[in-house]
């Protein structure tokens, strides 16, 4: 073996035990007779500089060096890093952009898990970074790279992610340190040793599988036929009707709606998509656009049809899988007594959603008049203990009301709006395929619940009635809808949306009446 130091940079978020991981590696190196050194650079926060730990291990044991002492660096040299280990995908990509990893030298071991940043959560639309783009950054900056969901493995084994990361290092073969040395130091880590050993073994086994698969694929590429691809297995109702490119999204939507309302409801979803597909096939017989309109409608229609109501919330909160997840997250043992309380605050809108059309409208009109007079919205604060028999049965009773959902006001209202949207998708696509696609993507505006959901529906209707049918040339109309849709997702106040409407000459949104409330001046 060439005499050299093997360098490793560990990037971790707060509370993930990267400091302990570094100590484990140093102890294991010394246990095996290798010289090692570590330094750390504490970060302020994840995106302004995650805590990083730099480790160097000399490639030959001390016994072979006689009296010589290896010389270590205190920080990594850009472009000469041997391995980058990271517990979060965006953090991995960020480190790659700093210039330390190199396509010629660096092995990158990254968790595929994401910790959504505050900036991503602030977006009204889908503000998450594109994971494919992040993976591309990592692959372009690495000699060899592997992705593994280390967070999932850690939760599965009931431990912190650092023990899984140690197993990943052992499985990668980066250091000339046997796995038994890593096991020894982990077993001496105190009360959590058993859980840490489980995490270590899980990381080691999964990483070994990835490495072996990579080697096997590299060996087979020279001999095997790359066209021998196993087709995706999907539901037969989807497989025989819809094009292959649309199968993943439609399958997810179909399964979601079966869980939400049942098989007949999911079949209604497929029937709606078939009408969109027929229209798109007539406009694009060769499928040159990969049936993007059908795929877009499949995505947003499934989410819209599974709108959140008190029935859905009660169903999710009373499922056995949820309780199991709660117990696992708090790491409760069989001897622990766990009490789980569910908080609800249903208002008149939630009650009206379950009623038939006539009574629901009367109830909403009555509430609207009350609010117009300056009175506060009526609501009822509820606290149910799902660990109690009464609380659990109450939740299951609410969940059982889904058989009546189709007769409720909310269902009728939502599906009436859905029909308007789908009709506009079809009519717009007849004018221009790209116009139909933009209207289909406007389904993204329907999200959340309460006032956020209502605002999204009003913005969508404004686009359907005022922008999609405007007198603008089709090309400008396509540009306008795309810009207005994106502006509607920028902020909740609607300031960006109003600017976009004004820019493209579209009518302004209706100004909603707000009650003026007079308050008595307090006497001191």
Quick recap:
This protein has 524 residues and is an alpha/beta fold.
Structure description:
The protein is of the alpha/beta class. It has 23 helices and eight strands. The strands form two sheets. It has a six-stranded mixed beta sheet with strand order 2-3-1-4-5-6, with helices on both faces. β4 (about 85), α3 (about 90-95) and β5 (about 105-110) form a beta-alpha-beta unit. Mean pLDDT is about 85; it is low at about 225-235.
Question: How much strand content do the residues show?
Answer: 5-15%
**Side-by-side strand order of the widest sheet:** 2-3-1-4-5-6
Largest sheet composition:
6 strands, mixed
- Structural class computed from helices and strand pairing: alpha/beta
């Amino acid at each position: 073996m060439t005499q050299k130091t093997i360098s490793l940079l560990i990037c971790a978020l707060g509370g993930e035990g990267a400091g302990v991981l570094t100590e484990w590696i140093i102890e294991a190196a010394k246990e095996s007779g290798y010289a090692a050194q570590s330094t750390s650079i504490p970060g302020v926060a994840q995106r302004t500089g995650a805590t990083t730990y730099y480790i160097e291990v000399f490639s030959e044991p001390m016994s072979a060096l006689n009296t010589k002492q290896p010389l270590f660096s205190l920080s990594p040299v850009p472009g000469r890093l041997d391995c980058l280990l990271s517990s979060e995908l965006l953090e991995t990509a960020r480190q790659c952009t700093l210039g330390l990893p190199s396509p010629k030298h660096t092995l990158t071991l990254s968790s595929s898990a994401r910790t959504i940043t505050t900036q991503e959560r602030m977006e009204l639309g889908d503000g998450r970074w594109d994971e494919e783009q992040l993976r591309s950054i990592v692959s372009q900056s690495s000699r060899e790279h592997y992705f593994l969901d280390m967070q999932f493995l850690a939760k599965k084994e009931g431990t912190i992610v650092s023990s899984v990361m140690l197993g990943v290092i052992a499985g990668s073969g980066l250091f000339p340190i046997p796995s038994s040395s890593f096991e020894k130091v982990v077993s001496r880590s105190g009360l959590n040793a058993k859980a840490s050993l489980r995490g270590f073994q899980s990381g080691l086994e999964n990483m070994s599988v990835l490495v072996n698969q990579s080697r096997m694929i590299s060996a087979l590429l020279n001999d095997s036929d790359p066209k021998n691809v196993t087709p995706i297995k999907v539901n037969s109702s989807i497989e025989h009707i819809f094009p292959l490119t649309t199968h993943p999204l439609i399958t997810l939507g179909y399964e979601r709606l079966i869980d939400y309302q049942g098989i007949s409801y999911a079949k209604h979803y497929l029937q709606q998509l078939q009408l969109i597909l027929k229209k798109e096939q007539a406009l694009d017989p060769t499928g040159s656009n990969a049936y993007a309109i059908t795929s877009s409608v499949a995505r947003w229609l499934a989410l819209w049809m599974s709108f959140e109501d008190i029935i859905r919330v009660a169903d999710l909160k009373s499922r056995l899988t949820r309780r199991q997840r709660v117990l696992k997250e708090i790491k409760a043992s069989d001897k622990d007594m766990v009490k789980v309380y569910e908080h609800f605050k249903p208002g008149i809108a939630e009650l009206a959603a379950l009623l038939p059309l006539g009574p629901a409208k009367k109830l909403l009109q009555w509430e609207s008049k009350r609010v117009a007079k300056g009175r506060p919205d009526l609501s009822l604060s509820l606290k149910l203990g799902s660990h109690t028999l009464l609380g659990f049965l109450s939740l299951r009773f609410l969940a059982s009301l889904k058989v009546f959902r189709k007769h409720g006001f909310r269902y009728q209202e939502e599906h009436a709006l859905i029909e308007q949207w789908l009709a506009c998708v079809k009519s717009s696509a007849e004018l221009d395929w790209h116009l139909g696609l933009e209207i289909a993507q406007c389904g993204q505006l329907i999200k959340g619940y309460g006032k956020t959901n209502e605002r999204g529906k009003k913005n969508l209707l404004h686009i359907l009635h005022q922008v999609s049918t405007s007198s603008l040339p089709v090309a400008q109309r396509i540009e306008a809808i795309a810009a207005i849709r994106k502006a509607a997702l920028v902020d909740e106040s609607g300031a960006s949306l109003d600017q976009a409407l004004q820019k493209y000459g579209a009518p302004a949104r209706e100004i909603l009446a707000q009650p003026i409330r007079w308050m008595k001046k307090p006497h001191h």
